[in-house]
Amino acid sequence: MVKFAHIADVHLGGWKQQPLQDLNMASFKKAVETCIKEKVEFIVIAGDLFDNAFPPIDVLKETFAEFKKLKDVAIPCFIIAGSHDYSVSGKTFLDVLEKAGFCKNVAIFEEKNGNIMLNPTIHKGVAIYGYPGKTSGLEVSDLRRVKFNETPGLFKIFMLHTTIDKAKGNLPIDALETANIPKADYYAMGHLHIDFQYENFVYPGPIFPNNFQELEDLEHGRFYIVDTSLENPLKRVDLKIREVVSVAIEIKNTIRATEQILSELEKHELEGKVVLLRVKGILESGKHSDIKFAQIEEAIKKKGAFFLLRNTHDLKSKETGLEAEIQETENIEEESIKKYSEQNPSNFNKFISQIMNALASEKQEGETTDSFTSRIMEETKKIFVT
Description:
By secondary structure, the protein is α/β, with parallel strands linked by helices. 28% of the residues lie in helices and 24% in strands. The strands form 4 sheets. A 6-stranded mixed β-sheet has the order 4-3-2-1-14-15. It has a 6-stranded mixed β-sheet with strand order 7-8-10-11-13-12, with no helix packed on it. Strands 16, 17, 18 and 19 form a 4-stranded parallel β-sheet that branches. A hairpin with a 2-residue loop joins strand 12 and strand 13 (201-203). The longest helix is centred in the N-terminal third of the chain and has 21 residues, at 18-38. It is globular and about 70 Å long.
């Protein structure tokens, strides 16, 4: 019998807006607090603890403080890197956490006779295996060659940060075939931000929604506590930090849009809530800048709202059929890459997101300019040789 917490896709440091970054951290703190209260035996984090391999110092300070709480009550934490906090150089702040004794990276493997042999991390009567996620789904082909160095008689957990065939739906992406994965008692999945179960494959969803669409769909984060002594071993823990109010308005004339939006917002109780404003439609007159968003923000502040996040991705110009403005969209980088790749087909396109992630690394406190430049260059060069 074993009781553990399954967490994935924390993405600390991911939100550009500080209030939402604070909510993300608050959700993680609540998850840690719940794990301690529930007296879980250990925690597994199936990738993307951080939103990139080198998160900001302020994020690291708060993260380390939470891991110290777990260490103080002797709850071990087992992790793997995800597609965001993975680094082609093999060096990330996950290594610093491990070196500090706050967690154990269970991605231990070696190449042997064309296979990737995974070695287990043993914790009491449990064998934990793991393989890291990589950018652009590059881990999928590796995982097709994975085998276990077996541990007879132990409860096996396999931690993966990838997409499996049973969960991908209509997504046009490569996915790992569940029938060919080594047998385990529990598959601790990460990567897809969905609450999904197939047999003993479990995606818990993110600790906190990671973009505008996810805030609309999920509203809050969640994770699972697994207790094999129970008939139904899975218990979902919802992390409701702030309520979300979604307001979608279709407009045709931007001159009257501000009044229309304010009128709609008046119908909602906004005190202390995150307000998601989606403005859409085909413009027949006026332009995007006619909408007085500053006035709208001031109005919702007076109603005591916690934060306003707006999206005008589906607000288009009638003449061109193009977006009137897309700068409000939270996943603008992903959309830009997708559009560029569609217009300029090339084998190089698969490296774009990896290069952007490498170039987005921040200069760390105490790091010289020369060593920072050298690190970025090394990260970028290794992308093309993996």
